[in-house]
Each structure stands twice: as C-alpha cells, then as structure tokens.
Amino acid sequence: MKKIEGSPKNLKQLLQNTKYSIHYYQREYMWQRKHIEELIDDLTSEFLKYYHSNDSRPAVADYGSYFMGSIVLAGKDNAIIDGQQRFTSLTLLLIYLNNRLKSIGQTYNMIETMIFSESFGTKSFNINVEDRQECMEAIFNDSDFDVTGAGESVRNLYGRYQDINEIFPDDITDEILLHFCDWLAEKVFFIEIVATTEQDAHKIFVTMNDRGLSLTSTEMLKGYLLSEIKSDSIREKMNDLWKDRVLSLKKDDEKGDETFIKAWLRAHYAETIRETKVGAVNKDFDIIGVSFHRWVRDEKSKLGLNTSEDFELFIKKFARFAEIYEYIRKAETTYSDETKYVYYNARINFTLQPLLLLAPICYEDSWSVITEKISLVARYIDVLIISRVSNYRSVDYSTIKKAIFKVIKDIRMIDIPTLKAKLDAQYVDLNFDPVKAFTELKLNSFTKRYIKNILARVAGYIEEQTGIASNYCNYMDTNTKNPYEIEHIIPNHYEWYISEYNDPDDFKRWRNSVGALLLLPKSINASLNDSKYDYKLTKYCSNEGNIYTESLGDIAYQNNPKFKKFIAEHNLGFESYDNFGKDEIKKRTSVLIQLVKLIWNDEMFK
Prior knowledge:
Elements: E1 4-10, H1 11-15, H2 33-50, E2 66-74, E3 79-82, H3 84-103, H4 111-115, E4 116-119, E5 122-125, H5 133-140, H6 152-167, H7 177-187, E6 188-195, H8 198-210, H9 217-227, H10 232-249, H11 256-268, H12 284-298, H13 308-333, H14 340-347, H15 353-358, H16 367-389, H17 397-410, H18 416-430, H19 434-440, H20 448-465, H21 472-476, E7 484-488, H22 504-511, E8 517-521, H23 522-527, H24 533-540, H25 547-550, H26 561-570, H27 582-599
Helix pairs in contact: 2-6, 3-6, 9-12, 10-13, 11-12, 11-13, 13-14, 14-16, 16-18, 19-27
Pfam families: GmrSD_C (PF07510), GmrSD_N (PF03235)
Protein name: DUF262 domain-containing protein
Domain GmrSD restriction endonucleases C-terminal: 447-594
C-alpha cells in the first residue's frame, strides 16, 4: 500500500472549488427522509447549543465543532469511496441555504463555490455525476423537476431536497441564517483520508469497517452489554442472538440497526428532551440520537441494568423489539387491511411513527396484543396528522417531536384498555373540528401532499363501503407512468368568471378550496387544463377517475345501488351538478366534511 494521508478538514476546505467523482459501481444516492431528518436535527440542534441571542457573526468562531466522520478518497479524480451519502446530503443543504438567502435578499460569498465551480468558462457541480446534472440544476434554481422515469438517485435527490424545504426548523430564523452558514462551513469537520490508488482506498475502507478501527454505536453497545454477562455460554448465545437480529435489520438498510435502537430506546426509556430554545442542552432523547451506546452505559441504573441477568434480559428485549420493529417497517411499505393505518401514515412520510408504535408494547405481549396496540396507535397518528395539517400545522420531525415525545411517555408500556382510554383523551385534546378546518382548507405548497392523501383516502373509503377493493395504493403511487394528480374542477381562467368572483384573489381562493378538487390520472388531468366544466364532466364520468370524481355527474347514481345505499345510510349530501360555482363548492365541501367525520374519528378508542 502506498502513502496514506489523513487530516481533519471542515466543510469549506473540502468542498470549496474542489471536484469529486463517484464511480459507476457505487453511484446510487440512497438516503431517505428519515436520514435527512436526523442530519438536519443533529446539525441545527448542535448549532443552537452555542448560539446566544444577539451574537455577532464573528462570535461563531468560538462555537464548538461537529464531527461528521471520515471521508475516504482515491486518485487524482478524488473518487469518493466512503462518504457519498453525507457529502451529497450536505450539498443539498447548502443549495437550500443558498436559495433561502437569495429569497430574503442576502448572499453568502463562498456558498456557491462549495456547490459548484467553474473551469474554462464552464460551471459544474463539485460532486460531479453526469446523470444527476439536470436534476441538480433544477434544485439549484429552485424549480420543479419531473422525476417520472428517473433513476433511483435522481428521485432521491429531488425528494430529499423537498424534505429539507419542509423540515428545516423555524428556530434558524432569517436573522441568524448567516450565522448558521458560517458554522456549517467552518465548524463541521470530516477526517479526510486520501489514498493514491483506488485499490488502497478500498483496503482502508475495509480495514476501518471490518477490523474495529471505526466501530459503530451498535457494535460498541453490543460489546458493553456482553462484557457484563458472566457466563461464557450465555454470553455466546446472546452474541449469536444479537448478530442474527442486526443482520436482519441491516438487510434493506445499512443503518437499520442504529435506526431501530434509537427508536426503541426513545420509545421505552428516554425521560427528557431538549428544550426548543437557543442555548438549550441535549437531553435523553437527543443524546440517544447521537451516541446511544454511551447513553446506555451512563444511564444503566435508569434501565435497570444491575446484574448479569439484567444485561442478558436487555439483549433478549433488543431482539424481541427488533422483530416487532421489522414488522412495523414492513407494514409501512406493504398495504394490509390489518395494518392499513400504519401504511397510510407512512405514505405521507410521518417518520416518527415507529417510536409511537413501539411505546405501548410490553416485552411479554403476545402477537395478537401487539398488533392491536399497533393498530390503535397508528389510528391515533392518522387522526393527529389530519387534525394538524387541515389547520396548516406541520407534522414534520423537528416541529412535532417534542409533542410526540409527550404522547410516547403517556402511553409507554400499558395494557389495551388503558391505551384506549389515553388515546381517547389525546384525541379530545386535539380539538379536531372538521367543519371549521375543511371550510378553510385550500390547496397550496404546504397542503398539496396532504390534500392528495385526503382525496385518496376518501375515494378509497367510498370504494370499501360499496364493495369495491380500495384503490388507495394506486392513487398515491407516484412511480408510475400515469400517476394520479390533484385536479382543479375550475380551470385557471379568471376572465371566464368575472361576474361570479370579486377579483383574481377571490377566484384563486375558491378555485383552490378543498371542495373544488379531485384526483385524476396525470394524462387526463393534463388534457383538461383549459376545458370548461361541461366538457370536464364527461371525462369525470368516464370511469377513468374514481367514484368520488364520478359523483359530480348523473351516471354515478344510475344502476349503482350500493353507492346509493351508502349515501342513504349516512345521509350524505351527494348530488350531481350541471354547473360548478361558489354554491356547488360549498355543497361539495359539506359532503367532504361528512366523509371526513366518518373516516377520522375516535370510535376505535371506545
């Protein structure tokens, strides 16, 4: 092996005017929303530990640093052998910060040179991958990008940038945004390890990961727990149990073991959480997210780890709850009637769900009890989401984690009757008023994905109630050639409706009302952009949408006894409309509210 060089470098030193390549065999960018959430939460929480009100920008020079781990590079073209996911994600964060600064009329001189650099009059991104170029340009210009048919990396890049836009915390206000940029560029460090050849770089990577030079938190936790077990034979059995479960957790996610352990410890053992204010210190919840192996060691009394038998039982609990966690993760990705609420919540990226679902489960619970508890809590989450988003309140990680932590502690390891009672009390505390919320609910950049989910749930519910298999999964699937999209019943031509609406703003408000929206396949939606209602109605009733869409016309009520029975049983205000204006929007909103009351209520907790 030739000369190896390693040195600490901050993000500015690593990225400014420096090009990196990623070889074809390890090119995919794989991070999901949960990874971005943890990264943003870790970085912003660390920054806010040091920031004090009215600090000047030069004061950031005395702030503490944050270590991001190592990055392994090879050759003259700076091929990234290890560190691509973090580097790419940090580049997305830098682009977000750059776009936000531009939106408030500020600049950060070095930030663009950390994102891209220029050579012979041609600009290119510092992490230079050809098939990502078009997507990265759209992200940099803060413009829309159609990911239909795109590869996995491109879909993930665009999705994670949207996630950053949604989850970046309000605590980092416009007034301190430059302070945060300074800290990110100057105080976030990597250990850069550079090898002359790619072969040597891979040897370094293997050595670091296979020979203990860079043990993960999971490995260090295992080592600590096993060291406290006196019996050699028991220690060997617990080691095998641990290894088998970790291998299973890592099957579809290389960080799956760490993600589970954080969720389990937070769900069952954490007692405190960092205050949402500048200068606050990390508590149980936050420390677990950074170094759970140290937290377990430091808090062993809190966890009841006193004897050799306690450590053995803790590993058995680890294995049991890991199995339950895997069941939850499967329910999030695969629709099943038994766990449908888990699936619904995952479809709109509620990443705190596993913590809440694990909270009430006891080690001794049977699978029938476990599945019932999971269904009850998932149903509560379902109502929690709809109650917040319909009132324009975020359910993103950084915004809601403290409120969720309170619920976790309230429902921690209890029986089913107690769980139902507590969830019903939590439901009452939500003060969910569908009439007030949905009368005011409008389509905008925040509500778009939630309204699509609401319309998909409503259509799926009607299908279930009328003897048809719910098509919800298809309504929400974006990875098809012809995905469903939100359709405005009223075309975007104010000049056609001047007599009915006061002004363009009044027209826009009514047009974006939730009662004036439908779901249609993209191809049909695009073909109807400039069509008037009478023509649109013929398409709505052509069996290419769904029963909720079709119910605008007469045909939905003809030779459809199950639908008519469903309407009569619940006294629903469905009717067909020859025209569609303000009065029809009001009526349609009233019908939607009736359906919302049927779909989102607290009957399960009674």
